[in-house]
Amino acid sequence: MAEKELFLTQKDISKRVKELGAAITKDYENSRLLVIGILNGAFMFMADLVREIKCGLEIDFVRVASYGMATIAGSLRFTKDIELDTQGKDILIVEDIVDTGRTLKHLSHSFEERGANSVRFCTLIDKKERREVDLSVAYVGFEVQSGFLVGYGLDCSERFRHLPDIYYLKK
Ligand code: IMP
Ligand code: MG
User: Fold this and answer.
1) Burial class of residue 25, CB neighbours in 10 A (0-12, 13-18, 19+)
2) Quick check: is 81 catalytic?
3) φ/ψ bin of 86: left (φ > 0), alpha (ψ from -120 to 50), beta (otherwise)
4) In whole angstroms, how far apart are CA 11 and each of 19, 29, 30, 72?
5) Which of 85, 99, 126, 155 is labelled catalytic?
């Protein structure tokens, strides 16, 4: 069994998700908000977050895969695209964790080309150490410097996603 060290409890997460939801509600009150979750990692965060957003919104999901080397710029493809119309919408992309930043950079280009009014990001965790691209994330739940996290949607080879708390995975 891989060893884990507790980082955030369900209670910590829930408190912060409420705060993020309140901030998003305030900022998007008079908008045509489309919240897009990135599968699979963001599924749990997304479900909790949208319940804390008290203005009207639509929900859709994308799934992306990297072509072999994820480090090559632009080497991402959609294995599932959204199905709703983006024209004139204010898009908020919801991610579990930002690492190099390449996934979000790629997605922002893709949605800006589709006639969205605005494209912003919300991530539960912002991992700073390995950032490779310049990226502005409007809503950040928690910042960490480094380490590998699992639980609350975050996985290691598809394991641990179901855990209600978040842990640092030890070697
Ligand atoms: P980026 O394109 O390098 O920012 O990749 C972000 C993606 O890498 C996230 O959506 C996760 O799927 C994965 N990832 C990065 N760091 C972690 C981690 O600590 N735990 C679990 N998944 C991670
Ligand atoms: Mg992910």
Assistant:
1) middle
2) no
3) alpha
4) 13, 27, 30, 38
5) 99
Quote the ligand 1 centre to 97 CA distance (angstroms).
5
Residue type for position 115: G
Starting from the CA of residue 147, give the closest ligand: 1
Largest Cα–Cα distance in the chain? 49
Q: How confident is the model at residue 80 (pLDDT cuts 50, 70, 90)?
A: very high
Contacts of 72 (CB under 8 A, 6+ apart): none
Q: Which residues does a 6 A CB cutoff place in the pocket of ligand 1? A: 41, 95-103, 127, 148-150, 154-155
Which atom of ligand 1 lies nearest, measured to the CA of 132? 3
DSSP-assigned beta bridge partners for residue 140:
123
What is the 125 CA–ligand 1 centroid distance (Å)?
Answer: 10
Average confidence score pLDDT of the chain: 93
* Helical spans, DSSP H, in 28-162: 43-50, 102-112
Dihedral (Cα; 100, 101, 107, 109), 10-degree rounding: -110
Q: Global pTM?
A: 0.94
Mean pLDDT across 48-57 = 98
Q: Are strands 4-8 and 166-169 parallel, antiparallel or unpaired?
A: antiparallel
As beta bridge partners, residue 167 has 6, 150
HSE at residue 108, side-chain half, CA atoms within 13 A, is 17
**For ligand 2, a single-atom ion, which residues have Cβ within 5 Å?**
41
